[in-house]
């Protein structure tokens, strides 16, 4: 049975001559990323209501902290899922790995949506929710690597950057959708209704993607055995060393990307609690940064196809490094809509571009036999280590120092570390490699 499933999962395979990457394939590959970040935004928006439902406590702060800790539990199983599902994608195929992770993600979000409250079934309620978060973390750990590998392998050599950029762009789209759903429910429902069942509606909307996502992913052609454009010939020993180097640099760059992303997501709370601006302006910062992030991710991939991976990683990263402190200084001193929306929007635009180029560059730099597993593992470790702590560190720094510029310091360190690693990354664009081969005697 396992053999038959493997054979079915690996067909049909895209031939080398196929130059198409349809919108169906892009949506099918990225729908899991969308569900992941939709769930992230929705859980964050309704963390208080979820705490009331599953973690009742006399102290409301304790209830909220238990809710957030449960959300963080999913980070623990991400590296495990990355190793298991990522390596499965390298052995069996991208499509079956992506399908398995999506089914587990959808099932977990459905369990979270329909689990009765603590008042109804007692201790079983929080235990079920924690189990769902662990399963979802496992599934999410194995989502990004196979998805990125699939988009790179399915795209024509000259459009790989744009194709892979839909991976980070889809995350921003989903985060925006989650914020909009939360905003609409909060505006149309009473606080009592939100507390009782409104938050469940938001999760059920995410669970509704299961049949669509399953249909899209099961129809995807397999890319694992598709011949790739010839790369620069390298001796096996040197190739192994090069792969290890790329993975080490990739971990630093993904850590940098993760810190910047999560600090940016923290800006609504920062604007409310630290800057003391009006709530509508604070919430608008997240929507604007997400919208700009979508455009910047796609722009970064498009530019990487034309100028190569390294220039589009390095120069915008330098610009972001130079812009970070002045932008935050402007925001803190003026606390105006122009500074918050315009300044943060400009910083998000410039700071997001390099990472689309990096995504495709790292995928191209890894051998196909380990591409899905290695990318997934490095991504999961970076997210688990730095994503789960970024907002806590920023909040702690701001509290301890009493300085509203603390987020800028942390972002500066992350941006500088990412830039150093980007400077050491090799160029992997097929057109640049062919040009280098042509010039070589």
UniProtKB/TrEMBL annotation:
Residues 25-429 form the Major facilitator superfamily (MFS) profile domain. It is a multi-pass membrane protein. Its main location: membrane. The chain crosses the membrane at residues 37-55, 61-85, 197-216, 246-263, 275-300, 312-332, 338-361, 373-396, 408-425. Pfam families: MFS_1. Keywords: Cell membrane, Membrane, Symport, Transmembrane, Transmembrane helix, Transport. GO terms for molecular function: symporter activity. It comes from the Bacteria. It is found in: Cell membrane. GO terms for cellular component: plasma membrane. Belongs to the major facilitator superfamily. Metabolite:H+ Symporter (MHS) family (TC 2.A.1.6) family. This is Citrate:proton symporter. It comes from Bradyrhizobium icense.
């Amino acid at each position: 049975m396992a053999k038959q499933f493997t054979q079915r999962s690996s067909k049909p395979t895209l031939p080398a001559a196929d130059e198409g990457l349809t919108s169906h394939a892009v949506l099918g590959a990225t729908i899991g990323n969308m569900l992941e970040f939709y769930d992230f935004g929705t859980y964050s928006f309704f963390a208080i209501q979820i705490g009331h439902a599953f973690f009742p406590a006399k102290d409301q702060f304790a209830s909220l902290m238990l809710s957030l800790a449960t959300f963080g539990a999913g980070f623990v199983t991400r590296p495990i899922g990355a190793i298991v599902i990522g390596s499965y994608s390298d052995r069996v195929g991208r499509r079956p790995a992506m399908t398995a992770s999506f089914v587990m993600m959808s099932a977990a979000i459905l369990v979270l949506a329909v689990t009765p409250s603590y008042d109804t079934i007692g201790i079983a309620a929080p235990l079920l929710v924690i189990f769902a978060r662990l399963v979802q973390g496992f599934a999410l750990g194995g989502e990004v690597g196979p998805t990125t590998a699939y988009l790179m392998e399915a795209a024509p050599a000259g459009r790989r950057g744009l194709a892979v950029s839909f991976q980070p762009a889809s995350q921003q789209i989903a985060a925006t959708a989650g914020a909009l759903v939360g905003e609409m429910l909060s505006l149309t429902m009473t606080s009592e209704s939100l507390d009782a069942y409104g938050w469940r509606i938001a999760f059920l909307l995410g669970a509704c993607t299961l049949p669509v996502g399953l249909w899209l992913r099961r129809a995807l052609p397999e890319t694992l055995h598709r011949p790739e454009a010839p790369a620069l010939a390298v001796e096996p020993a040197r190739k192994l060393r090069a792969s290890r180097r790329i993975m080490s640099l990739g971990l630093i760059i993904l850590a940098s990307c993760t810190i910047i992303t999560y600090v940016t997501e923290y800006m609504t709370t920062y604007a409310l609690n630290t800057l003391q601006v009006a709530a509508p302006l604070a919430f608008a910062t997240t929507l604007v940064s997400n919208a700009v992030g979508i455009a910047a991710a796609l722009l970064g991939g498009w530019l990487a196809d034309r100028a190569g991976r390294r220039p589009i990683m390095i120069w915008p990263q330098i610009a972001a490094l130079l812009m970070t402190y002045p932008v935050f200084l402007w925001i803190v001193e003026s606390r105006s809509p122009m500074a918050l929306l315009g300044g943060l929007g400009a910083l998000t635009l410039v700071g997001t571009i390099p990472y689309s180029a990096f995504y495709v560059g790292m995928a191209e730099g890894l051998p196909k036999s380990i591409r899905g597993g290695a990318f997934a593992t490095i991504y999961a470790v970076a997210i688990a280590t730095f994503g789960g702590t970024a907002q806590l560190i920023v909040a702690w720094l701001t509290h301890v120092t009493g300085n509203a510029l603390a987020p800028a310091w942390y972002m500066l360190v992350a941006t500088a570390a990412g830039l150093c690693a980007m400077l050491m990354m090799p160029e992997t664009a097929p057109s640049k490699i062919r040009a280098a081969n042509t010039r070589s005697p």
